[in-house]
Amino acid sequence: MGKAGPRLKDIAEHTGFSVNTVSLALRDSPRIPPETRKKIRLAADQLNYLPNQIAQSLVSRETKSIGLILTDLQNPVLTHVAQAIETELAKRGYATLFATSNNNLAEEAKMVELFRQRRADGMLIFPCSHRRLEHIKRLRDRNYPVVLLVGDPDAGIDAVSMDERAGAYAATRHLLDIGHRKIALVDGAQTLGNTEKIEGYRQAHADCGVEIDRSIEIDPTDHSVAAGYWAMAKLMARNVRFSGLFASNDSLALGVLRYCTKHGIRVPENLSIVGYDNIEFGEYATTPLTSVDYDVERVSSMAVERVIGLIRSEDALPAPNVLQIEPNLIVRQSTMPKA
Q: What is the per-residue pLDDT across 90-115, written as a single tens digit (0 to 9) for each?
């Protein structure tokens, strides 16, 4: 057992004030004169007093902590999201509890329960499956503040996210508008039932009256650069023609780009590539990547604002609100009109 730290009683004895006065002063109560508060705080610093956060949370019913569950911190955009959310929460006096589900639904449910047991005031969750949300919906039904970072408008759960369907539509429509008619799709989200991007890809084709070639759609079952490289290798092994390619994130797109560089496929002269997320690596690749922008700062700020608003709600939570932000397409050197 470590040595017990100083108590309120020790500060009271050191300053000559009562324990109640010391307690009120350390909570900045206006009932205590400023000079007295200053003297007591100085004594607390000298004695290295640390407040009992557990006791305080039992009184206030707040731990001043919020759980953040992401699918994979190896994804650069989610690492950026984690940093931005931690910064936003710290500005508002909240600590961040981190966890990753590794795209595993059972692990995600386990982390949700762990944060609930640790009395986190609320949760922000990037769910691995955008449709299988029953474990999160139960939290909401119990009046617990939770906000998703990927939104299903019909889930009955608050969400702030980029509109992935609209982003995929914009990426595909860009390729169609510059003359490409055979556009490959590399999308690793379908295994988990996350269909927003493939829906946007297909809708763009439908709106332009272009038939989709299913032989150039591929699910690499992962989201990494290596997965993108091997997805391109599989597409080439099928011996099918395509002049454009949309990858559902920039890591996959960079893997495709690496394959092209290694095998003498010129980008964009032989193949135009569009990614998704607009990560820094894509902008500074050998051939700068055209990509759909993920507005990390805006999503993070608005999601934090919403979850804190839910925490501060009196009685029942307000009706769920789903906000989907329209993304912008950033056009760079990896795309050009089809010759």
A: 999 999 999 999 989 999 999 999 99
